[in-house]
Amino acid sequence: MMHLPAIGFALVAALCVAMSAVSRQREAARLPEGRLGRFGVIGSLVRRPNWWLGTAVGAGGYVFQALALGRGSVLLVQSLLVTSLLFALPLAAAFAGRSVRRAEWVWAGALVFSIVVFVVVGDPRQGKQHVAPSHWAVTAAIGVPLLLICLFAARGGSGHRRALLLGLASGTMFAVAAVLTKSTVALIGDGAAELLTSPVPYALVVVGLTAVTLQQNAYHAGDLQASLPAATVAEPVLAATLGVLLLDEYLDIDRDHLVALVIALATMVAATLALARSAAADPGPAEALPAT
Length: 292
Known about the structure:
The protein is mainly alpha-helical and about 290 residues long. About 80% of the residues lie in helices and about 0% in strands. The radius of gyration is 19 Å and the shape is globular.
């Protein structure tokens, strides 16, 4: 099957993302609200070894994500990264000192089934490797003001609203980073001169750092049941949209299977939300301890 290398790399990336997210969530949640470092949440987290360990695992996951994007579409890879919730499920349960609930197994099965249907029936195909500068300009003209409004609204909101908006913002930035990553991988194949003279890899660094910063601030906002589902759903949905609009990716499907695909996509979103809420609802023992 032509998608197998991309699928394999994406699943390994999802495992790394799950381990990294659990570790960094716990560290961010332990930070005292009134005792942040000079540079905010990130400034405090960089002094914690466990945060660096989670970050290193996450960096490994990003390498596998890049390898997957080099061999498959954004539509395919970002949809498969949702399986990180399946890996995070037993980790969250273990830290909470409980077993995985029956309802969680049901939702996990629904998520696996929907992803299989999406990959087999939808058959996501690659489009272009690079985004036209004019398309990036339009995307930035629309996206940057919306992002700024989201961040401004998060500053004065309650803990729940702040976590929700920051989660949406971080998911959005990770989605943009996925498209930039795909283009950067293609540039690497074009040679060092193309890579170093293109603005794409530099934009990727800025967007990636912004995404991580927003993610950690969302975790620290305190309401994981708001931030985690928002980020987990926003990233693949927006990444898929950008893949279609900017890279001309598409689903190779006939009308006879359209209903099955729509049901699978709806099930995927519902299962993702349910599992993200479940993972966020179980603070581990470390999060309940006084910060040190």
